[in-house]
Structures are given as structure tokens and as C-alpha cells.
Design goal:
Elements (H helix, E strand, L loop, with lengths): L2 H34 L6 E5 L6 H14 L4 E5 L4 H9 L7 E5 L11 E9 L2 E5 L15 E3 L6 H12 L8 E3 L3 H10 L4 E5 L5 H8 L4 E2 L5 H7 L3 E6 L15 E13 L4 H15 L23 H9 L3 H5 L2 H56 L3 H19 L8 H26 L1
Parallel strand pairs: 1-2, 1-3, 6-7, 6-8
Antiparallel strand pairs: 3-11, 4-11, 5-8, 5-9, 10-11
Helix pairs in contact: 1-11, 2-8, 5-6, 8-9, 11-12, 11-13, 12-13
Length: about 450
Amino acid sequence: MDIRERIRARGRTVRFAFVAAGAVALVAMFWGVSMLSPLPPRTVTMTTGSEGGAYHELGKRYREILARSGVELRLLASEGGIENLRRLSDPRSGVSVGFMQGGATGDSERKDLVSLATVSYEPLWFFYRGRHPGRKLEGLRGKGISIGPEGSGTRILATTLLAANGIDRDGTRLLPLSLHDAGEQLLSGRIDAALMVASWESTVVRRLLASEDVETVSFPRADALTALYPYLNKVTVPEGVGDLARNRPPADLVLLAPKTSLVVRKELHPAIQNLLLDAATEIHSGAGIFQKAGQFPAAESVDLPLSDAARQFHKTGRPFLQRYLPFWAAAFLWGLILLLIPVVGALYPLFRLAPALYGWGMRRRIFRLYGELKFLEGDLERSDSTEGAGDLAEQLERLEGRANHIQVPLAYTNLLYNLRRDIQLVRERLAARRGPQAR
């Protein structure tokens, strides 16, 4: 085989080695990321609200947006915020994300949950038939009032406000009606009043506002109530916004409104949290009757602290990698970076020492032969016989053969050539020594 063939064969061997090493490294990276820095889940479960309700409809929009990134969002209907809280607090439920109404979270449920953002106002509507219930709502005593079903945020807020005004169960019928049922029974006159936490877009709210048989309570002591219950906010429904032609409502209404938070379990993957915040920005950032454009999602912790991922998102926006790469590619690359940071930190000293160690190893292979050459040269100086010179010549030949078969990188060939030259010099001295003896 000529020199060119040998070079080409060596090149093929080197390329094969690089390909094999690359494949092994790629497999190792996938294994390392999946085991030590797990990728985001492909399926996430969200607890929403009743079928057809505002929370459930919002959940459908979140599901559509997450599906663009290859993440399936399963929606689980519920009776409302309290049931959502119960599911989120239970690690065995499989629920990772849900909507929560401000003021519904107790201390015992907070340890495993964090908030991503507040996403909207959810006003408390207080509709009634007949005479105005009075400044202290005393006219509601003994009446039939819908306060929402068990497990709903409406029920918690309604009972709190009624109790604060002295309206309790004695003589008053507090009915666990759903939003739809409460609206139908109030319009038909079967109940006297209904409290409901619902968005402005709710069909039931629009029907009740437009009805001339139903009026809306404007909370006269809203400032006192927001001071006593800090999770409540004052919002205004402008006169005529429900129906300009008939001027419904006939005057500005002051309502109380908790904020809705998007809540997740602490262990939910940060990449999924960022994806949910991306969806929240797309869904909730527009202007509405109660909020300005860009007001939501907001970095507010009403009942729960913000997650670390959410805090970073609100400061800098979408993570850098997710701005330029598909979601799964960005998630994998970020996991790889997190995996490599400690590895590189541990290996950095070795990387700095590696060239020196490699150079020492190459020189040692050559210097070892130099050591043997030095001994041969010493034996040559001490030898006086022709027989001894012949034995030295054989040893010198073997040493030269070993030197000719050493493979070293190009940077160290000068040392190898110097070794071969010095072997030749010793051979010439040996030949000069044997010449006079032969004569």
C-alpha cells in the first residue's frame, strides 16, 4: 500500500471514529437530559369550572394554544374555584393547573401551590327583584337567594358578604343554584335575588342586565368592604353599557370583584409554566370593560406567591431559547445546558490540564527511547572489545526499529526525527570504534 492509500485509509478510520463518538455522545446527551433534567410532560391536566362556564371556555382557549407546541391540555370540569383548589392541593388528583378566585385559598392549601399571574377581574353581580334591599341589604331577610353551588367561589364570597351584613341562614333561604339556574329562576320570579361571580361576557349576566324586571345592587360601602377583604377590588359598570337604547343599567354600578389567578403545582415543569404564561398573554392582554390593554396577565400574588418561572417571565418575557426555537427543541437544549453546567464546572480544571498531560505523554514515549540510547552510548564508551561492539550494534538496530514504529502527532515529529538522528550519530561512533579494531 503506497503512502496516499495509507493516508486515505487513516482518514476513513478517523472519520468513522468521529461519527461513532458523535453517535455515542448524542445518545449520552439524550439519556442525561431525560434522566437528570427531565423534559416537560406532553400531557397536562387543568381543572376549570362548570361546563359552559367562563373558566371552562377559557380552558378551551388554553388547550388550543398549548396544542400548537405539541402539549395536550386535558380539561376537567368542576363546580368552581373551591373544587379547583381541592384538586390542585391533592397530588393524587393528577391536576397541575387551574383557575382560582382571590380569597378562596386557606393557609393549609398554600404549601404546594404557586401562582403564575392574575388574569382577570371576576365581578360579583348581585341581582334582585322588587324593592331595593337597602343600604345594609336588610330587605333580603327571609327571601330566597341563590349563592352558588357547593364548591364554587361564588358561594364562599356570597356567604362572607351576607354574614358581614348580618344576613345569615335564619329566615333566609340560601340556595345552591348554578349560574344558569339562578338566572332562569330570577327572571321567572321563583327566587328574589342571586349573587354570582361571572365575567362580563357571561350570557346570563347580559340577560339579567337587559331585563327590566331585574335590578343590580350597587355596593354602597364598597370602600369598607375592600378594606376589610383586601382580595376584593372596586370596578364600575357604566350606565347604559348593557343596552344603550333602553339605558340598562340606568346608572353607574359599583361592584366588588376578586381577581382570578392562574395557579399551578410547584413541581410543574418551568417550561410548561412559561407556555401557560404565553397563552395567558395571548388570551387576557386585551382591553375589556374592567381592564386596560396589557393590564393582564399581572405579576400579582393575591393568595399565593408567584413561582420563580413566573417572576422571571414577568421581568424579561418569554425565555430566550423559546423566542427562536420550537418549544421542544428549546426545552431539550435548556435541559442540556442545565446538565452541562455542573459537568463543565467539574471538568474545566481537567480541560486546562489535558493539553499538558497529552504533551507529557507524547514526549515520554520518545524520551524513554532517549534513555535507552543514553545507556547504549555509555556502554559504547566503556566497551573495548569487538564482540561487545557487535552486541551494541544489534541493540542499536532494535532501538531504531522501535523509533521507526512510534506514531506521534505532527506537533511532536521534530522530537522523533531528533531521536532518529541521534541514533544515527551513535551508530557512526560505533562504526568508527569497530573500524580500527577490525584493522
